[in-house]
Amino acid sequence: MTYSIVGFDPVEKEWGVAVQSKFIGVGAVVPFAKANVGAVATQSYANTVYGPEALKLMGEGKNVEDVLDEITGKDEKRELRQVGLVDRHGNPATFTGSECYSWAGGVTGPHFAAQGNILVDERTVQAMADTFQHTEGSLSYRLLQALAAGQEAGGDSRGQQSAALLVVKEQGGYGGYNDRYIDLRVDDHPKPIDELIRIYELHQLYFAPSRKERVVAIEGEVENDLIALLTRLGYWTDELSLQEALKAYIHTENFEMREQEDGLIDLDVLDYMKQQ
Description:
Blueprint: E1 2-9, E2 14-21, E3 31-34, E4 38-43, H1 50-59, H2 64-73, E5 82-87, E6 92-96, E7 105-109, E8 112-117, H3 123-134, H4 139-152, E9 162-168, E10 180-186, H5 192-207, E11 215-217, H6 220-232, H7 242-252, E12 264-266, H8 267-275
Antiparallel strand pairs: 1-2, 1-8, 2-9, 3-4, 4-5, 5-6, 7-8, 9-10, 11-12
Helix pairs in contact: 1-2, 3-4, 4-5
């Protein structure tokens, strides 16, 4: 009742998992990842021991096929299980037990493993594989696009309920204190992939650095828009300068990553203000 894709970005050194299921809170069950080690998706009567055990074995330098053999070999219910993984170099592997509910299967390619069970048919997994390989952009974006393509191709035959995205990189977490670069979950929603993409875009707005081409001077039409928006949102009063009002807004909305030097603004912040 789940489909997932596990991937690796060799340039940015990122490992990640995207998953959707007709199951509540799938992000608490399926995805596991550790920077400079690999990523794992365990599903279909998921044995959650597979995640930490596979990461431990990959961290010891074992190849992915040996890891699969070891974690499934000592599991008496392995024929009900499904698992996909990539190691620190992006080498992929996938396993589907013979008793997984149809349609069930997986496919691997350069730096990814895609798999699913109780699917409409094999097109879901193939769509994820094709999309991941032919989409440009960050690992997180490619994983989400692959997940959406899987749903478009048929998805879980029982419908949708939850989705999750986990991406790790060394010191990629908030403040650089851990490797949890992106960890987003939609636990119960009629269109969980659409909602996951929405909150991912918010995450990028909050935490991604400003693009140089989007940073402009506060003058002309931009200044007029900013005055109107800060007034409507209740930030600009007679007691504050325009710059002080903008700073108050940015700090209230947690947009410190997008804050510019005086006299400049990130247009992504301005666009967000227009949507409020």
